[in-house]
């Protein structure tokens, strides 16, 4: 009994000591509750709306003349997809004179589903806007003749850290006492040093006031104003309000973590590129093992040690092996974009070269040229050209633009062409979409990703998803050959027939409806036009 009591007392003492140690090591900073469902600092919107300068009432009576050629360039309150009428029906007219066609995307759904689909899409879009927008996106208009000097951009703080606010000053005004008020919603103000003759009230709070009889002393104090972020968010912005008698100013402080670099040690020298250390070739195959082997053989003629990653969703997969070959088996018919995701996920080099499994490398397939332009520019992805057996060569350059719409969604417009030629690379241009033969920064491709719901018909959807984050180029002097697809019916193998059945579904198929449905719901487009 005595032994049991002693054991209990020892356990009790140990528990008390452990509890005291935990309490001693517990962080002393008070944690506040933040509603991450909304954008922090959203009250700044109302503040900015109240402060936007009103139009001079007398301006309404001043006549003006609209310049249609300029005004027509401005965004409208809605958008419409309009196609071009068919012209004269001549042989090869569509190839020689391509016309713009328009397609509504809501037809991917049954009429009975459409209202519910619109409601769900609107709800998802509202959530997307809340996650993607910050007060740094709001319009701030600097009012005229303000004596306040303040930073208009470039102020940034890491979450829960402190910075000095640069560029603050008050210009001379005829007054007895100079007063300056600071307000914020996601952080507090303080002074890193105290200047004689300046009174500070509210230091360490979201609202702070400085006052002084001496303007030089006040301006000296403004050099030591600090801002500390107190409400954690990994990427947002705080709107700071600066006010003196009769004058106000607003500026934003970005709150975000620094971008963590992902660097690749290629081990290559400065004189020439080590393609094997820089590039991995990725492809997706389905049934066509003879063409895949032709691709591998052609690659090895020019790049014997470059790693080739193969994603394979054939029903009865065959072994594909050899030096520097990685073959990954997927569930049968898993799909085109799912295979791209799998292949790219296994790449460990700085760049990934995407090729179709029926391409053939030649002496014109100079990967060094594609590497060179990515190394020397800000491009994220650069496409080459594909030469058909007929001799026709295509880059499939596409410009992609989005016209803002209203509740029905935006309008997607795709056109053949490019934006401008790249200086120093006369065969290369900047565009938005390219052919299925491109070299890209591996991290950027993973960032955009390939929607695995696009199983059989997809390509430009990747570039649509990447619009705004992918900087795309195209060079027509790096060429890969395309194995011929022109075969008479009696010359087709069983694998050719099976492949064609999966690869080229009719326009009314589930694959096409899935593609249009994703454009409608996921990307919030109401329609698209293309030529």
TrEMBL record:
Its main location: Golgi. One of its GO terms (cellular component) is Golgi membrane. It comes from the Eukaryota. It is found in: Golgi apparatus membrane. GO terms for molecular function: acetylgalactosaminyltransferase activity. One of its GO terms (biological process) is ganglioside biosynthetic process. Keywords: Disulfide bond, Glycosyltransferase, Golgi apparatus, Membrane, Signal, Signal-anchor, Transferase, Transmembrane, Transmembrane helix. Gene3D superfamilies: Spore Coat Polysaccharide Biosynthesis Protein SpsA, Chain A. The keyword Nucleus does not apply. Pfam families: Glycos_transf_2. Residues 281-446 form the Glycosyltransferase 2-like domain. It is a single-pass type II membrane protein. The keyword Translocase does not apply. CDD domains: Glyco_tranf_GTA_type. Residues 1-30 form the signal peptide. Homodimer; disulfide-linked. Belongs to the glycosyltransferase 2 family. This is Beta-1,4 N-acetylgalactosaminyltransferase.
